[in-house]
TrEMBL record:
Name assigned to this protein: Probable membrane transporter protein
InterPro entries per UniProt: TM_pro_TauE-like (IPR002781), TSUP (IPR052017)
Cellular component GO terms, alphabetical: plasma membrane
Taxonomic source organism: Azospirillum cavernae
Record localization: Cell membrane
Amino acid sequence: MTSFSLDFYLVALVTLFFIALLKGAFGGGFALIGVPMLSLYIPPIQAAAIIAPLVCLMDIFALAAYPPRTWDTRHLKRLIPGALAGMAVGALLLGKAPGDLIGLLVGFIAVAFSAQWLAARFGLLRSSAASMAPGLEGGYFWGGVSGFTSLLAHAGGPPLSVYLLPQGLPKTALAGTQTVFFTVGNYAKLLPYLFLGQLDAPTWKAVALIAPVVPLGVGVGRLLHKRLDQNAIYLVCYLLVFLAGCNMVFDVAVQHL
């Protein structure tokens, strides 16, 4: 692995600041934005390896902003075991599973799920069809899907959203629950990256140079969280999931044209 260009660092600083801001405001789930952006300059697996320690650093500041009283443990008791199981499966396929297939699957899930909610939000679909929340037992399944896609592509946000957003949690409980879920997952997936030798000296140097934007981004995001009303937060969450899903599908389509 070689040294990184100035253009790479400029894009990485802006991208990681934005991801940290979203973590502070909504509890995370948007690290998937980072891999496509950094992959403009470096291989996707290297981009994922750089992002992994940085989102772990974000989690430290996010947990301070969203302490245990903001967590909904009913859902976490199912989501976290599911996620760890999904990561175990993903670790077996890391570097072997077709990246395009994973991106396409996650993208379609994100688009279909968020488009349904947005259509109901703007009166294009009966709200009852979009408001059906998965049962608690569904947390094992969607937690597993989230863990699997998170390990392979930092794309655990959309599958988690399929389960968690329809639960209608208060905005701070939603952010706190997502924060602790992704904290556990982000630290767990450091092990496969270490095992595969992706976290080498150039990677850690890049991480150290990008890291200062992390606390700043989380802090700005937390301030935004306090100022946004609950309906606005849910609307932004669903819009971001929709756009991220469209981007993933578009990227796969462009590669095969």
